[in-house]
Fold this protein.
Amino acid sequence: SKNQPQRDGSERFQDSFSGSIMNNHIVTTLRNQFARVWAMWRSEIGNIPEAEWRSGDLDYLTPVRHACHAFETADFYTGIIPADQFPWGRHYAGNWEGSPVAELPDHAGILSLLEKIAELVDTRLTALSDDDLNASDPVFPWTGGTRLDTFLYLLRHTQHHLGELHAELRRRNIPRAAWK
C-alpha cells in the first residue's frame, strides 16, 4: 500500500542488530553489508533499459558483463573450491568476458541469479562464527590470509564493479541506484 515502506532487500538483517550479537558480531555485520550491496545491484539493474543492458561503447563496459562477473565471483570467494577447479560459467552459459552478450542473461535471468547468489552468500556467512572468520584461509591467501579477509575482499570487489557500472550509467545519463 501507499503507506508501506518500500522494501529492497537491505532491511533483511536490520532486526539482527536489536538482539544479542556479541557472539557473531562480525558475521552479522557482514550479512548486513552484503544485503546492502545486493539491494544496490538490484536497483541498478532495474534502472537499465533493456536496449542498454547488452550494449556499451567498450565491450568491458557492457552492464550484463559486470553483473555476471560480480555474481559469479561471489560464489567463488565464499566457497572452498580452488580457482583451477571452480566450475566457471555454471550460473549461465559461457564466459562473462568472452561469450557474445546475446548468450548472457537478460534482466530477468540476472535478477534471478542475483537472488540465488545473495542467498548463497548469506547461507555461507550464517554457517560461520566470528572465530571461523578469523581462521586462516588456505584457498584464497592473496585476499589477506583469513576468511574475514576473503569476505572483505569479495565485498570490495562486488562494490568495485557496482561502482564501474554506476559510472557507466552516469555517462549514459541513466538513473543510478541510491547509496545504501
Summary: The chain has six helices and no strands. Residues 37 and 159 are 7 Å apart (CA to CA). Residues 147-171 form the longest helix (25 residues).
